[in-house]
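Memo subject: From amino acid sequence to discrete backbone structure tokens
Keywords: amino acid chain, backbone geometry, structure tokens, three-dimensional fold.
Body of memo: The sequence and its backbone structure tokens, given next.
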Amino acid sequence: MLPWARSHAALPTPVHLAGDTFRFFFSSRDADKRSHVGWADVEICETPRVHEVAQMPVLAPGPDGAFDDSGVGIGSVVVTEDGVSLYYMGWNLGIRSPWRNAIGLARSSSPNGTFTRYSPGPILDRSPEDPYTLSYPHVLLFGPDDWRMWYGSNVAPAVGNADMQHVIKQARSADGIDWTRDGKTVIGFANEAEYALARPSVAKIGDNLLMCFACRGATYRIGAAISRDGGLSWKRYDAEMGLGVSEGGWDSEMTCYPALFWHKARLWLAHNGNGYGATGFGLAVWEGSLPL
């Protein structure tokens, strides 16, 4: 058993390497329940196979006193000609509130390279637009100067799940480092039972955008929304495109932490199941026409 990966393979984040092989970055917990980021190389086909697993993490918790000293949870990875940008949520344990989250950035020359933090501090932290906490970012590059991020944010102070009000917001950047945000909610709750939406993942489908995310009420499920105006407005499509639980097995209690990706003109979804990734991650593939 690897000391940095005693449990969990949470927040699967795919990066295409070559052919049918994708590298799935994910977060695992050590004996102190601090999350690290590692990877597994998976062949994507009708019967996916794991070829190799990292023996060392590519990103570990920061030093004591840093914003990410209690754990790092991967959000998304962007590959450009200039290298690889890994966006993640880092957190500290709190006293009156159990945690404080912020968004960090680590970079590498390639998926096989060494990842180095862009800075000791976060690139997005609490602010007038996000006064309480931030969570897992998803970043897409729409053009050389058009980076977009979707992330989770509390809209009310919270000390536990009972009073959490966690929605999805958006930020924009010209370089992937300095971000502008207006604090507006882009995905809100579908009903009174929901109190947290987290870990958005966005895929381009023609001129439209599809987002999947974890939505939490009585338990976690994967919800979905579609934007037909470039991300300005979204409509929920949970019933048509969300992912519920299985009748038995590793995702019979919950589905959460989705990641959309395309491979050979098919839309795939990596996701976690029971225990927020304690049972590992799996894959689903969309069959049929998309409701666009």
About this structure: The longest strand covers residues 7-18. DSSP finds two helices and 19 strands in the chain. The CA atoms of residues 129 and 182 lie 6 Å apart. Residues 7-276 form a domain with the Tachylectin-2; Chain A fold (CATH 2.115.10.20).
